[in-house]
Amino acid sequence: MTRQDRFEAIYDAYYPAIHQYAARRTGSPDDTADIVSETFLTAWRRIRDVPEGERALLWLYGVARRVLANQRRGATRRLELADRLRDELAAERPVTPVDLDHVRAAFEALPERDREVLALACWEELTGEEIAEVVGCTAIAARTRLHRARKRLAALLEREPSSTIAMGEA
User: Fold this and answer.
1) Which residues, 6+ apart, have CB-to-CB distance to 26 below 8 Å?
2) d(C-alpha 28, C-alpha 163), whole Å
3) What Rg, from alpha-carbon coordinates, does the chain have?
4) pLDDT by residue for the chain (170 residues), tens digit each?
5) How far apart are CA 133 and CA 127, in angstroms?
6) How far is it, in rounded angstroms, from Cα 49 to Cα 45?
7) Would the pTM of this model clear 0.85, i.e. be above it?
């Protein structure tokens, strides 16, 4: 019996039992399918370790149990990360909403080249040397581009009388 023949025999014999095992322990058909597929993928990879006869089902249950535990740990980690990110983002939001439509309009009115260096400096907090590496120019050229882009943005913002924006040097 070849490796593939043995796997197919195991799959045909025990798929329904493993599917039911997973379905009773998960909340969605997608999760069930993930557990079943991961279980049989492990069986395929380790076909020489799968016991003969009825003991193969017990071995598959053990694999499915570990796959399910890994899936639950991963889901827990993702939920914890999402909660932590949500809390961090909520803490960083300004208490009072600020109308920045005029800033967005001025930024969008700039050429793409200016928007790129301003975004790298302000949003990504890169230095002139780091911007130079990203855009592929010398540090002096990057600082010059950034200086000119800031001047053009400031000129556009001066047209809006109520706007005062601080643009720190990077």
Assistant:
1) 32, 35, 68
2) 52
3) 29
4) 899 999 999 999 999 999 999 999 998 999 999 999 999 999 999 999 999 999 999 999 999 999 999 999 998 999 999 999 988 888 776 656 667 888 888 899 999 889 989 989 998 888 989 999 888 999 999 999 999 999 999 999 888 655 445 555 44
5) 10
6) 9
7) no
